[in-house]
């Protein structure tokens, strides 16, 4: 048995009187593609916000590769190897695709300025390495030809691909994707899922993704975690989760509510 890359234990987060996340507990296996599902309002995005440090939990612990991260700031958590995308895509529309990629690249403090102002050799070398990495990722995501295009001119699906390519500049160990397929045409969406499978296979990157399309979840995830009303109500293989009466109830309850 491998150690989990992520362990969430007893995590709660309330907004006013609403417990958006309620004593949630789950683990994510290193090297897995794990889906996080649940009806609208189940607390999935809030869970991602808490894991990535955008908001702090009211209680509970979160461990990333054995380190406690629940009191850490987002940039610290990012540096420890966790990257995320947002339910509403965030790219810099007024910047070229390549610049979107380069801006994601972590630098030593002052290195960027030194590179620009002094044309230092180290600055140039790191710029060169970042461009090479960005070019490689844009090729993987089929965006190489769009490198000089403004991100705002890309289709919604291409922007999603760019957002995922961009966070991979950080060389994360764990990637959280919040509805990566939403608003993406099916062929681009499946290409994105193929890239995810490839990155997992070749680089051992772990993915935790929120998805509403059950066919995608069932065919692409090794494991599924189900949330409803802030709590984790089921967790297991796609087949096990699909036939779990609590999961069926949660979805039917959501539809009739
Ligand atoms: N900043 C906030 N302030 C107040 N309430 C919030 C806030 N963020 C989320 N909520 C509430 O918390 C609950 C969980 O929301 P969340 O966005 O985490 O659900 P979700 O599972 O991601 O849903 P969806 O599938 O629709 O994206 C909802 O009732 C939502 O209205
Ligand atoms: Mg959400």
Mean pLDDT: 89
Q: How does CATH name the architecture of the largest domain?
A: 3-Layer(aba) Sandwich
Helix/strand order, N-terminal first = EEEHEEHEHHHHEHEHEEHH
The CATH superfamily title of the largest domain: P-loop containing nucleotide triphosphate hydrolases
Largest beta-sheet details: 6 strands, mixed
Bound molecules: adenosine-5'-triphosphate, magnesium ion
Q: What fraction of residues sit in β-strands? A: 15-25%
CATH uppermost class of the largest domain: Alpha Beta
* Shape field: globular
Q: Which stretches are low in confidence, meaning pLDDT under 50 for 5 or more residues running?
A: none
- Distance between termini? 40 Å
Major sheet strand order:
6-7-8-3-9-10
Helix content: 40-55%
CATH topology of the largest domain: Rossmann fold
Query: Care to count the β-strands?
Result: 10
Rounded radius of gyration (Å): 19 Å
Counted by DSSP, the helix tally is 10
How many domains, in number, for the residues? 2
Structural class: alpha/beta
Q: What report would you give on this structure?
A:
- It contains 10 helices and 10 strands.
- It is an alpha/beta fold and 257 residues long.
- Strands 6-7-8-3-9-10 form a 6-stranded mixed sheet, with helices on both faces. A 4-stranded antiparallel sheet has the order 2-1-4-5, covered by helices on one side.
- The radius of gyration is 19 Å and the shape is globular.
- Bound molecules: adenosine-5'-triphosphate and magnesium ion (MG).
- Residues 15, 18, 20, 38, 40-46, 87 line the site of adenosine-5'-triphosphate.
């Amino acid at each position: 048995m491998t150690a989990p890359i992520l362990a969430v234990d007893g995590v709660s987060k309330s907004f006013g009187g609403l417990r958006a996340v309620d004593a949630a507990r789950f683990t994510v296996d290193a090297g897995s593609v794990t889906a996080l599902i649940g009806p609208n309002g189940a607390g999935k995005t809030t869970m991602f916000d808490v894991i990535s440090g955008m908001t702090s939990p009211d209680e509970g612990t979160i461990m990333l590769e054995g380190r406690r991260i629940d009191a850490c700031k987002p940039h610290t958590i990012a540096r420890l190897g966790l990257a995320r995308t947002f339910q509403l895509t965030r790219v810099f529309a007024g910047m070229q695709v390549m610049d979107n990629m380069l801006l994601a690249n972590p630098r030593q403090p002052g290195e960027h300025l030194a590179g620009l102002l002094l044309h230092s050799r180290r600055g140039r070398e790191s710029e060169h390495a970042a461009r090479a990495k960005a070019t490689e990722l844009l090729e993987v995501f089929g965006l190489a030809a769009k490198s000089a295009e403004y991100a705002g001119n890309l289709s919604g699906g291409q922007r999603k691909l760019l957002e995922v390519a961009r966070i991979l500049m950080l060389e994360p160990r764990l990637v959280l994707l919040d509805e990566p397929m939403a608003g993406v045409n099916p062929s681009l969406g499946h290409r994105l899922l193929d890239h995810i499978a490839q990155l997992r296979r070749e680089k051992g990157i772990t993915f935790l993704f929120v998805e509403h399309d059950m066919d995608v979840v069932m065919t692409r995830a090794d494991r599924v975690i189900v949330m409803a009303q802030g709590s984790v109500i089921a967790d297991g293989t796609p087949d096990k989760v699909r036939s779990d009466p609590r999961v069926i109830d949660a979805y039917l309850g959501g539809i009739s509510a």
